[in-house]
Amino acid sequence: MDSARPHTPVAYLLRLCLHALICGLLALAAVRAVGDRAPHAGAVIGAVVAMAAVYAAGVALPSVRPRTAAAAVWLGALGAAWLALLVVSPDALWAAFPLYFLLLHLLTLRWALPAVLVTAGAAIASFLLHGQQITPGAFIGPLLGAAVAVATVLGYDALYRESERRRELIDELVATRAELAEAERTAGTLAERERLAREIHDTLAQGLSSIQLLLRAAERALPAGAPAREHVEQARRAAQDNLAEARRFVKALTPPDLEQGSLSGALERLCAAAPGPAVQFGVSGTPVELPTPYEVALLRVAQSALANTVQHAAAGRAEITLSFMDTSVALDVVDDGCGFDPVRRRPKETSGFGLPAMRSRAQSLGGTLSVESAPGQGTAVAITLPLPVAGVR
Predict the structure, then answer these.
(1) I want to staple 149 with a disulfide (CB 3.0 to 4.6 A). Which of 100, 264, 332, 346 is the partner?
(2) Contact 116, 100 (CB under 8 A)
(3) 304 has pLDDT over 90
(4) Main-chain phi, psi angles of 372, to 5 degrees
């Protein structure tokens, strides 16, 4: 008799107890028949052996599993052997109790409950068959045992299902934690790439660019044929080569969204992939090439503002506009959502740090961030960055 459930220590122990109970009750019937020198002692011994053999066969057969035809056939054979023993021995009625558990375990509840009632009825009928004294206990005992068996099995099934739900929930939480850890590692890697790109651009690249400009001025100031002119020219070329190498480092550390094309292309993909409201993208002015830190800052601000629109604004449409002006570049994210009061809602009172992070990005590049909103009137987020001086990238 196999089980469809995992062989947990508790289930294994319960099966052993059931085997021991049936063997003990059969042995009790045989011993009492021999000890009392019953007239049908031989028949009792034969019926005990037959029932024990049928039970052992069911335990050994792997096909006897819950809710299968083999289990129903085996239970029918076991029930017939028990009825035969019940006819020749009044002590066989005690085997009804473990039979309740077998019926409830191997049959569906639809068939198990009637089978348990029939078994209890057969146990009660054995009192009449063997001329036992009819007392209330003759009826209450088998019925109470059946009720206890039903309550025990149903309670165990409820606990088992609850345990399985908890196990599935734990597995889901473990998988979610692994996904979150991977997302945090990815976010940390991207943030570190951006930081390194910004540091290289703001320090190393800018310093090499300044050195190159100074050496170019020194080269023009030296008279033709001056001995130092050749060394200054070599130093300027070295600074120029190292500046180009620094810019390659910055480009290699560019976020993946910008690796596939320009800032405009990255913003178009962002609008196309945004869930929820319809998002339009537009460009005004004459586009110019921007340094990588500028593109990263504008892209991250657009991502953060659009994420706020999707999650909190309940907007029907949104628009992202990239504007190139004479001395600055601006990015506007406007939606028609529920809006909020920027004065009353301070950054520390919100659930996230989107606006402070956007403002910090703008200030790090010498720009500004403005937020215009009102309850029921949508929200407009605008970042403006001054264009870098020509030749200094």
Answers:
(1) 100
(2) yes
(3) no
(4) -120, 125
Instruction: With CA atoms as reference, report the closest residue to 272 among 264, 92, 100, 2.
Output: 264
CA 233/CA 212 separation, integer angstroms: 10
| 3-class secondary structure, 342 | coil
Q: Which is it for strands 379-386 and 278-284: parallel, antiparallel or unpaired?
A: unpaired
Coil vs helix vs strand at 323: strand
Pairing of strands 278-284, 317-324: parallel
- State the residue for tokens 């600074």: 239
Nearest to 331 by CA among 266, 280, 382: 382
Give the pLDDT score at 213. Answer: 80
Tell me phi and psi for residue 330, to 5 degrees.
Answer: -130, 150
CA atoms within a 13 Å half-sphere pointing along the CA-CB vector of 11: 14
Mean pLDDT for 213-239 is 80
Enter the tokens of residue 120: 């209890």
Question: What is the Cα–Cα distance from 260 to 382, expressed in whole angstroms?
Answer: 25
pLDDT value of position 260: 58
DSSP-based three-state secondary structure for 335 = strand
Q: What is the pLDDT of residue 202?
A: 62
SS3 87: helix
285: left (phi over 0), alpha (psi -120 to 50) or beta: left
Higher pLDDT, 77 or 127: 77
In the chain, helix, strand, coil percent, each to 5?
A: 70, 10, 20
Is 11 strand, coil or helix?
Answer: helix
Task: Count how many Cα atoms sit within 13 Å of the Cα of residue 205 in the half-sphere of its side chain.
Answer: 21
For 334-388, write each residue's pLDDT tens digit: 999 888 887 765 444 333 346 787 888 888 888 999 999 888 888 999 999 998 7
pLDDT digits (tens, 9 = 90+) for 55-86: 888 888 888 888 888 888 988 888 888 888 88
